[in-house]
Amino acid sequence: MATAFYQNFKLGILGGGQLGRMMIQSAIDFNIDIGVLDPDAQAPCKHLATYFQVGSLTDFDTVYQFGKNYDVVTIEIENVNTEALKQLQSEGVKVFPEPEVIALIQDKRAQKLFYQQHHIPTAPFILTEKQADLYQHLSFLPAVHKLGREGYDGRGVQKIRTEEEIKNGFDQPGLLEKLIDFDKEISVIVARNEQGETKTFPVVELVFHPEKNLVEYLFAPAQISAETENKAEAIAREVIQKLGMTGLLAVEMFVTKSGEVLVNEVAPRTHNSGHHTIEANVTSQFEQHIRAILNMPLGSTTTKVPAAMVNLLGEEGFTGLARYEGLEKALALEGVKIHLYGKKMTKPFRKMGHVTIIDQNSERLKEKVKQVKSSLKVIA
After folding, report:
1. Is 160 left (phi over 0), alpha (psi -120 to 50) or beta?
2. Do the Cβ atoms of 250 and 187 come closer than 8 Å?
3. CATH of span 124-178
4. In the prediction, which pLDDT does 216 show?
5. Does residue 40 contact residue 18 with C-beta atoms inside 8 Å?
6. Is 253's pLDDT higher than 60?
7. pLDDT over 90 for what percent of the chain?
8. Do residues 281 and 289 lie in contact, with contact meaning Cβ atoms separated by under 8 Å?
9. How far apart are CA 359 and CA 31, in angstroms?
10. Which residue of 13, 111, 137, 376 is surrounded by the most CB atoms within 10 Å?
11. What is the rounded distance in angstroms from the CA atom of residue 194 to the CA atom of residue 295?
12. Which backbone phi and psi does 360 adopt, to 5 degrees?
């Protein structure tokens, strides 16, 4: 596989959002023809892909017919038809990450049971079938109620601290997870190719939006002890190896007040917590994903320079044609690199782009994050 792409090799991506867009930007350096399937006719990948098809990612026939045209099929979103991917795999199309892995991770309940069965440290949890089940576990509160399936970017997660808040829980299969009194939230991105070569990117520290439960900004590398760093990277390697997965896996974790490292959730694809690697690391997460799924040697993950990444989210109260207020002010700061995602329309909290900031001085880095966050706004 490592040399096949020099001629007629074709890569298919399920999902045409910003992750696919940045994957294409890396794939261009390898002369790879990319086909993209996405339900949105105006998806960010539309004008960059060699071939772009509008269609459902969850419909068996659509995914199967699309995938038959490619040597390798990969994803940039988990909500895809895994039965179609299994069929493609049985007919000789390489599918990475493997369909069985995607199917497992699609279901947060199955994901948590996997950690439990494989002795991977994670928060205590209880499976629930309906909202009324929560009343049977009042002594378990405070906790977080998560939808088993189709929760994404903070959706499908509710904090339940008291009996009164149970009405906010989900009346669908889910899990009740103990609310962890954590010190930091961190993420490790780990890659593995078909030969089993495995490499981790340095640990990053995540700061989440207080209401919407999605990453607002991050710092890389994380300000943690060497012991915690080693523990987190070892856990990430263990997860991808026990999954038997090929590709890129983002492992989000909690560092507790007592120094424990617990797996929160994983994503079997390139991830928001790795965007800074484009500027800050020898190999970006997007290039590493391509290397992994084509069974190439994995690239160096060494940090070239400390970095921060700020998500550009649509401002609350604005829906319509996007305008970027304060762009010039942000660009005037040294070490600032802006990535816009090609989305014409904004709405509250929609991911419209990200800003990477690099600086050798951590205090200056934090100050520039504040400046970017206060000056650069996505409005309509």
Report:
1. beta
2. yes
3. 3.30.1490.20
4. 85
5. no
6. yes
7. 91
8. no
9. 32
10. 13
11. 5
12. -70, -20
CATH class of 182-379: alpha beta
Per-residue pLDDT reduced to its tens digit, 1-12: 445 555 678 999
Amino acid 251 reads V
Which H or E run includes 35? strand 33-38
**How far out from the chain centre does Cα 336 lie?**
22
Closest CA to 15 of 76, 60, 78: 76
Domains 124-178 and 182-379 alike in fold = no
Query: How many CB atoms sit inside 10 A of residue 130's CB?
Result: 12
Query: What's the CA gap between 287 and 290, in Å, rounded?
Result: 5
Please indicate whether residue 33 or residue 192 has the higher confidence score (pLDDT): 192
Q: Where does the pLDDT of residue 127 fall: very low under 50, low under 70, confident under 90, or very high at 90 and above?
A: very high
Q: What's the CATH class of domain 4-95? A: alpha beta
One DSSP character per residue, 278-308 reads: HHHBSS-HHHHHHHHHTTPPPPP--BSS-EE
Q: Give the closest residue to 37 by CA, choosing from 4, 69, 5.
A: 69
Taking a C-beta distance cutoff of 8 angstroms, is the pair 283, 277 a contact? yes
Spatial neighbors of 215 by CB under 8 A, at least 6 apart, are 206, 207, 208, 209, 272, 273, 311
| Amino acid found at 112 | K
H-helix segments, the chain: 18-27, 60-67, 82-90, 99-106, 108-117, 226-243, 277-280, 285-293, 327-331, 362-375
Comparing CA positions, the residue from 302, 316, 324, 309 lying closest to residue 354 is: 309
Of 56, 35, 12, 45, residue with least CA distance to 343: 45
Give me the residue spans of the domains in the chain.
4-95, 124-178, 182-379
